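Whiteboard transcription, Tuesday session. T.W. wrote the structure tokens on the left side:
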């Protein structure tokens, strides 16, 4: 009955009632205030009727099941609190403080927060969903709450953030047993989330860390260094809107954006230096060509973000024009990040050594120009910032450096500098896919609402990152151990292979330097010693003219000379066939002329060869001969006769051809090696030797010619192997002494190319790792060397889904032709190729050494980061427990505050316990000695 429904729902008044309509003959969805004449939502007495209640008033209430046009009766008792407090006590957030007529339940606000942050839902969509839940047929009959909803959600998020960061519990005040604030290196009132793994002196690591030196380098600085990356995003822009400036951001200066007024004053006062407008001359065109026209009708073209190595955003700032000429934005953002991090900007009396800071930025090569004077001009009073910027090191992220010129690739390549670990520098990029989902709604807001929404979205991103950080770093540590072991195997093999040269190589400096006005690095080829395309093509042509398949120092009987002659003619036939195939694909007059010349020469030689054959094998009938197609003529040497089951083959001639064919096969392996190296040089030198469309076309033809000659050498090798099989020297499926050869067997790691993303993981192959060997750590490593590589938490499949059988990973291995200790010295005509090969071996060794040490540093760093995560979680739990104890001892009767603090402390304790388990887990590559450390200094020492 109606009375029973009202009694049972006095504490859940937003449940819809299905009321029978006697006139329309169906159940109608009805609000609780319309069930009976005087029914309403009563406040102040836990849903019960108030004898002194104020007159009932119409009220719009939004809950998760829709918008309710209802009636509310406030408590009118003498000691009754204000109306807005009565609403909050009932779990309803009022739209206004004075005379509230609209409210939102905490449930719907919390639901909106999750839908917004996880589903990128806009306010317009969410409020219309609530309207349709109330009346799907005529949604316009339901009150519109969208005009209040934006402001209310921003205030609700702000209050929740202040609670979660401890500001309602006095987090900025001193703890009872300490002489300073709980987090002294953070600014007072800061609401953002700080990365748990990055160094925060006094919180997750000591204020001072002992550094160990080898030469001029701090070999342990990566364990306490701060790694940050800077990047811009143009999808979080802002259109010009009618904004009178009255709607201010409720988080202004308290989270990731700097104070808006302060930033605008900097931007207006600063005049961009012409030097700041010129990026790297070889940089990607999208950066060089940015202009105001691209951002027409936009008040803000995008945002710049600083993020740490773990993808936690530390600061954001608006781009007023574009990313290229944005010195104000980037430097303001750097200052904002450092204000929120571990610097001593907030304590002038603290004298602690600054940690090493490494910054990665897409246009770092131009950003560092005039950097210190620019910072001094922008922030003349921040001497702490001047010191940090002056000592800051820089790199270009791994994926962006490929678009830079040679000087940048030498100066700012992340993988070739000590104490940088294996940080790719692209962590800021991981933020954008998440933030881009908010772009369509952000660009339509006013400036204050946009900043608040971005701040809350980034805080949600950061907090989720912190919650999963131990698991993420554990997976990265396991990967580092696996790749480290593989690179260790590579480096040992290369060191043994070049044992005579390693002593001299080891004495060379690993730092780049200027030699005769040219940048020099041991990790790159010196372009002056690399053969040009013309050098290589001349070498290949000379090799073709002087091709020899036997050792001429050995005297042969006339039959052996004749057989060798036949082998040479067979090679000429294969060469004509190769040219014919090339001409069929790309008909060229020069190619056809070459084919005609080769046919004329081969026809004349075949006439002489067949005349000699009649003298050696007089009983053998000559094969048919077409003077127009000499490449089709059968050359009747022993291997061909055996194919025809001829009885004219003498045993002595068979032995002679076997000997000659073995020599030919060995020579062809060397020829394929040289042709492959030549092709590598041609591919890598196109950008230096040719300009314009005509030059590029010639370069393409040259590359195709080099590929044809390489394939010809492979075909000739296959012909020699087939002959040995016919002669009975080896079986068709034999792998020794001459295995089958394909183009895949010529694959090699090209050292003339600059380092590309993922190179450190491409270490498999016969030259790198013996077939069938199991890579494992051999330096007092983890308990289990065969632990499988785990996926990152974001990509891990659900446990309740059966794992699908995956195809084995197709690995690109180095070809077997490179298993020899060294190539035979080429002829004088191939001197440039020989010089390239010699330098290639040196560059390969230095790169392998660098990769080894970077992955060793990465493995060490992940232990240090996991330690810091544990200590950060321990500190958070301790601070919350102390706050609960302080409130309890103060007898302030704030029961809710005490319970909330205890709940937060328990959550951080659970995270700490999980992180400790991850730190000591064998399955994530824990080092059995390092995990026994008693404190961070002991860990660094170990």
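and on the right, the sequence the group agreed on:
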């Amino acid at each position: 009955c109606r009375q029973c429904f009202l009694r049972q729902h006095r504490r859940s008044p937003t449940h819809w009632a299905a009321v029978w309509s006697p006139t329309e003959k169906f159940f109608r969805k009805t609000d609780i205030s319309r069930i009976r004449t005087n029914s309403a939502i009563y406040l102040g007495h836990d849903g019960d009727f108030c004898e002194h209640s104020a007159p009932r008033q119409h009220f719009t209430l939004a809950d998760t099941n829709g918008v309710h046009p209802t009636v509310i009766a406030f408590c009118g008792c003498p000691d009754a609190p204000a109306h807005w407090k009565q609403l909050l006590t009932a779990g309803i957030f009022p739209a206004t403080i004075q005379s509230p007529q609209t409210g939102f339940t905490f449930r719907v606000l919390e639901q909106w927060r999750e839908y917004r942050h996880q589903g990128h839902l806009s306010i317009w969509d969410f409020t219309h969903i609530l309207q349709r839940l109330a009346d799907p047929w005529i949604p316009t009959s339901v009150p519109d709450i969208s005009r209040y909803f934006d402001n209310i959600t921003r205030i609700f998020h702000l209050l929740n953030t202040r609670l979660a960061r401890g500001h309602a519990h006095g987090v900025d005040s001193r703890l009872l047993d300490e002489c300073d604030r709980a987090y002294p290196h953070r600014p007072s009132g800061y609401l953002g989330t700080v990365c748990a793994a990055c160094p925060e002196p006094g919180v997750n690591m000591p204020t001072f860390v002992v550094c160990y030196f080898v030469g001029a380098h701090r070999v342990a600085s990566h364990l306490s260094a701060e790694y940050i990356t800077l990047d811009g995003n143009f999808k979080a822009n802002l259109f010009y809107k009618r904004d009178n400036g009255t709607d201010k951001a409720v988080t202004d200066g308290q989270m990731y954006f700097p104070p808006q007024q302060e930033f605008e004053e900097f931007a207006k006062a600063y005049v961009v230096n012409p030097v700041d407008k010129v990026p790297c001359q070889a940089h990607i065109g999208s950066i060089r060509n940015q202009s105001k026209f691209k951002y027409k009708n936009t008040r803000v073209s995008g945002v710049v973000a600083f993020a740490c190595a773990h993808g936690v955003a530390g600061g954001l700032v608006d781009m007023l024009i574009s990313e290229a000429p944005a010195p104000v934005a980037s430097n303001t953002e750097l200052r904002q990040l450092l204000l929120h991090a571990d610097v001593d900007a907030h304590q002038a009396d603290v004298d602690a050594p600054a940690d090493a800071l490494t910054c990665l930025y897409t246009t770092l090569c131009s950003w560092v120009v005039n950097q210190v004077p620019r910072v001094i001009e922008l922030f003349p009073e921040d001497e702490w910032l001047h010191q940090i910027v002056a000592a800051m090191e820089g790199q270009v992220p791994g994926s962006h450096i490929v678009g830079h010129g040679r000087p940048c690739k030498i100066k700012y390549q992340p993988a070739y500098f000590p104490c940088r670990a294996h940080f790719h520098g692209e962590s800021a990029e991981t933020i954008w896919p998440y933030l881009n989902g908010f772009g369509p709604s952000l660009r339509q807001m006013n400036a204050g609402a946009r900043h608040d929404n971005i701040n809350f979205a980034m805080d949600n991103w950061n907090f989720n990152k912190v919650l999963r950080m131990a698991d993420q770093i554990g997976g990265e540590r396991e990967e580092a151990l696996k790749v480290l072991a593989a690179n260790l195997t590579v480096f040992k093999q290369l060191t043994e292979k070049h044992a005579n040269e390693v002593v001299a190589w080891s004495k060379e400096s690993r730092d780049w330097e200027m030699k005769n006005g040219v940048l020099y690095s041991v990790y790159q080829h010196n372009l002056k010693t690399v053969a040009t395309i013309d050098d290589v093509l001349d070498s290949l042509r000379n090799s073709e003219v002087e091709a020899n398949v036997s050792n001429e120092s050995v005297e042969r009987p006339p039959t052996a000379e004749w057989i060798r002659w036949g082998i040479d003619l067979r090679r000429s036939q294969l060469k004509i066939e190769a040219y014919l195939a090339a001409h069929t694909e790309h008909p060229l007059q020069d190619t056809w002329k070459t084919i005609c010349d080769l046919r004329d020469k081969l026809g004349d030689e075949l006439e002489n060869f067949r005349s000699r054959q009649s003298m050696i094998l007089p009983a053998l009938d000559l094969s048919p001969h077409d003077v127009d197609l000499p490449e089709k003529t059968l050359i009747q040497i022993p291997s061909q006769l055996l194919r025809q089951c001829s009885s004219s083959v003498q045993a002595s001639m068979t032995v002679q051809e076997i000997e000659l064919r073995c020599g030919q096969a060995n020579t062809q392996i060397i020829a394929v090696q040289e042709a492959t190296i030549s092709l590598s040089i041609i591919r890598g030198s196109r950008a230096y030797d040719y300009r314009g469309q005509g030059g590029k076309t010639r370069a393409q033809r040259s590359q195709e010619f080099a590929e044809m000659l390489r394939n010809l050498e492979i075909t000739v090798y296959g012909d020699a192997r087939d002959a040995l099989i016919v002669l009975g020297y080896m079986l068709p499926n034999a792998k020794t002494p001459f295995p089958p050869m394909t183009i895949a067997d010529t694959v090699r790691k090209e050292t003339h190319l600059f380092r590309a993303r993922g190179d450190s993981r491409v270490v498999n192959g016969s030259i790198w790792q013996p077939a069938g060997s199991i890579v494992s750590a051999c330096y007092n490593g983890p308990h289990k060397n065969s632990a499988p590589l785990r996926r990152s938490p974001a990509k891990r499949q659900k446990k309740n889904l059966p794992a699908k059988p995956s195809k084995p990973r197709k690995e690109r291995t180095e070809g077997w032709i490179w298993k020899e200790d060294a190539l035979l010295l080429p002829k004088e005509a191939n001197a440039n190729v020989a010089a390239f090969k010699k330098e290639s071996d040196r560059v390969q060794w230095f790169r392998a050494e660098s990769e080894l040490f970077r992955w060793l540093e990465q493995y060490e760093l992940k232990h240090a980061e996991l330690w810091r995560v544990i200590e950060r979680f321990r500190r958070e739990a301790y601070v919350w427990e102390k706050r609960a104890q302080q409130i309890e001892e103060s007898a302030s009767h704030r029961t809710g505050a005490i319970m909330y603090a205890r709940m937060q402390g328990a959550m951080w304790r659970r995270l700490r316990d999980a992180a400790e388990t991850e730190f000591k887990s064998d399955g994530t590559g824990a080092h059995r000695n390092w995990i026994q450390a008693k404190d961070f200094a002991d860990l660094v020492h170990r």
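Someone added at the bottom: The radius of gyration is 38 Å.
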